Amino acid sequence: MKHRLYHPPPLESGQTLTLERDRAHYLTRVLRLRRGAEIECFDGIGHAWRARIEDGGGHSSALTLVERLADEPAPEPALHLVQGLLKGAAMDQVVQKATELGATDLWPVLAERSNVPDAAERLARRRQHWQRVIESAAEQCGALHLPRLHEVRTVAAFFDAPPQAQLILLDPGADALPLTLPRAALGVLVGPEGGWSEPERQAALANGARRHGLGTLVLRGETAPLAVLAAVRHGWGWA
């Protein structure tokens, strides 16, 4: 079954799901699947089922969950990406690739140098869009767990209640990221296009963050987080 579809929990064997219009369109118009075709359906919290298309059209489709295929525990250790908001498609790319690279938590933060509109309604819509990007990326890459997408907040609000993890502040000019890091909960803080401000840098250090860089080349805002996530996962043996 090469086709995968995310559906939010709760799910159980024997259940019949009625898909919304966009999902029905994807199965029957884009993938051109017909009644009786089988796909994998997963719930984003570690479970997957063999699912059969019972009927379908461009406006709605029904799936029956035939049998459980997988039960996978939550990934450990936790890997948090704390990302200063980037403009437009750059942020979409980070969200997509961070999902593929195994981040467990995504924290979009409004930094001083984030050159994006900060209206609450607009940020809420962007967050809904990023959630769909996560789901699509998980379908493509074979993940059974979706990273948790946290609410957009300011840097100060993030440090009011940071995750229980060692924090690494990605900061150009600092000592290079170690080749290996302990397999323990880790949070990587990556700034927006203009980098972190000095007050933000000091706030991170005051909360126990360690400063590290990625060499002498200047990486784009959407490249740096992917480089550091890949480096961490490689140091952990991609397990």
Q: Characteristics of this structure?
A:
239 residues; alpha/beta; 12 strands; five-stranded mixed β-sheet; seven-stranded parallel β-sheet
Class of secondary structure makeup: alpha/beta
How many helical stretches?
Answer: 6
**Strand composition percent:** 25-35%
Rg, nearest Å: 20 Å
Q: What's a quick, concise take on this entry?
A:
By secondary structure, the chain is of the alpha/beta class.
Strand-helix topology:
Elements: E1 4-6, E2 16-19, H1 21-30, E3 38-42, E4 47-56, E5 61-71, E6 79-84, H2 88-100, E7 105-110, H3 120-141, E8 148-149, E9 153-154, H4 155-160, E10 166-170, E11 186-190, H5 198-206, E12 210-212, H6 224-235
Parallel strand pairs: 1-3, 6-7, 6-11, 7-8, 7-9, 10-11, 10-12
Antiparallel strand pairs: 2-5, 3-4, 4-5
Helix pairs in contact: 2-3
Describe the structure.
With 239 residues, the chain is of the alpha/beta class. It has 6 helices and 12 strands. It has helices at 21-30, 88-100, 120-141, 155-160, 198-206, 224-235, and strands at residues 4-6, 16-19, 38-42, 47-56, 61-71, 79-84, 105-110, 148-149, 153-154, 166-170, 186-190, 210-212. A hairpin with a 4-residue loop joins strand 4 (47-56) and strand 5 (61-71). Helix 2 (88-100) runs parallel beside helix 3 (120-141). The two termini are 24 Å apart. The mean pLDDT is 94.
